Amino acid sequence: MTGAIGRAVTLAVALMATATATAEGFISRETWRAIRRADRDGPFVGLVVPNAYEMVPVLNSPAFKPSDNIPILDVQGLNAGLTTQLLLSLFRVKGIVHWGIAGNANEDLQIGDVTIPEYWAHLSLWNWQRYGDGPENELPLEAAGDYTREYGFLNFSDYTVGQGSPELAANTLNSIWYQPEEIFPVSGTPEQRQHAFWVPVSKRYYALAEKLEGLELPACVNATTCLPRAPRVARVPRGCSANVYTDNASYRQFIRSRFGCTPVEMESAAVALVAHQLGVPFLTIRSLSDLAGGGSSLSNEAATFIDIAAKNAVDVMLKFVPLLGGEQGGLAVDM
Q1: pLDDT for 13
Q2: pTM score
Q3: Which of 106, 53, 50, 52 is nearest to 303 (CA)?
Q4: What's the alpha-carbon Rg for the chain, to the nearest Å?
Q5: How much of the chain, in percent, has pLDDT values that exceed 70?
Q6: What is the C-alpha to C-alpha distance for residues 198 and 168, in angstroms, rounded to an integer?
Q7: Which of 47, 155, 236, 253 has the most CB within a 10 Å radius?
Q8: Checking DSSP bridges between strand 153-155 and strand 126-128, what pairing results, if any?
Q9: How many other CB atoms sit within 10 Å of the CB of residue 220?
Q10: Omega prior to 190 cis, within 30 of 0
Q11: Rounded-to-integer distance, Cα 180 and Cα 161, Å
Q12: pLDDT tens per residue across span 314-331
């Protein structure tokens, strides 16, 4: 797809569908022909979006105009990582821009603010330690390099209500230790694993995003519901993903203090890991729809602010993508 958001940039849009779609288990000849026609106009900037409600504002934007020559193809996957892999396998993609909404773990920011993290981590891979062991005890298979105590742990006893008695506060769930992902980069030795916990975005993309910092965005959901101030764009050090919807204040505060997370959501780390392994530059743009777990002076219902958060993320993405086409050297960007 192409549009007025940048004539020098051709866009391939991937939608991570949440609905079940019928699949034949192979790519039809008709689809292959459409892919080959599209690839003739590559390389593309691949736009990866989590849900339909985060894509609809793009389709409705006056900045977007479908191409007369390139067919519209939705690459639908079971999850963010698979969708990104399909997009990079089928199309001539030179860079990935991912956007959407997220919960907020950083109380210095406001609902509606749009964050652009420099690093992403996946916080759903754990080594769950047996009861009775502690921080000084080696984890199973740690000596073999399969697991590590490098990135810290969450001890469930620390969150027991009423800890006056250590015996009563003890929790047989004990601790979970956060683990890096195993990766096999194309630049590495075949079948020789590496580990990645903090995955960096493209240095060049991140530098370009500085041009958007301070950009003020719409503040009102409707005539009666507005945010205290106009949302802004902010580059932040870290974002965190997990296969968990986080709506717990204690856990929000823990991952903020332990890992420095600002946006917390479910997809970006998977996109980051695939792009990183394949050496493809990428960036994620996440608008904050709620303070995860509550505690804000605003309503914490994500449903209240989901529309404005989604639109703000789209508005920033539509301003960022043309910056790629304006760079000398086009899409041949550095990681």
Answers
A1: 55
A2: 0.86
A3: 53
A4: 21
A5: 82
A6: 36
A7: 47
A8: unpaired
A9: 12
A10: no
A11: 30
A12: 999 999 999 998 654 444
Give the DSSP letter of residue 129: P
Distances (CA, A) of 80 to 13, 124, 134: 13, 14, 35
Task: Provide the 8-state DSSP code for 87.
Answer: H
CA dist 38 and 24 (Å) reads 22
Give, for 96, the enclosing helix (H) or strand (E): strand 93-104
Distance CA(287)–CA(310), nearest Å, equals 7
In order, the DSSP letters of 163-224 are: -SSHHHH--TT-EEEE-PEEE--TTS-TT--EEESSEE--HHHHHHHGGGTT-B---BSSSS
Q: What is the DSSP string of 231-275?
A: -BEEEEEEEEE-SS----HHHHHHHHHHH--SEEESSHHHHHHHH
**Which token pair is 14?**
């991937």
Short-list 274, 298, 276, CA closest to 288: 298
The string of pLDDT tens digits covering residues 214-226 is 888 988 888 888 8
Distance CA 283, CA 258 (A): 23
Q: Are 141 and 247 in contact (CB under 8 A)?
A: no
Amino acid at the residue 201: V
d(CA 264, CA 113): 13
Closest CA to 236 of 124, 112, 106, 80: 106
Nearest CA among 78, 51, 58 for reference residue 11: 58
Model pLDDT, residue 23? 46
Amino acid at 7: R
Give the pLDDT confidence score for residue 165 in this predicted structure. Answer: 66
pLDDT at residue 54, as a whole number: 87
Helices then strands, each counted (H, E), the chain: 8, 13
Neighbours of 55 (CB within 10 A): 21
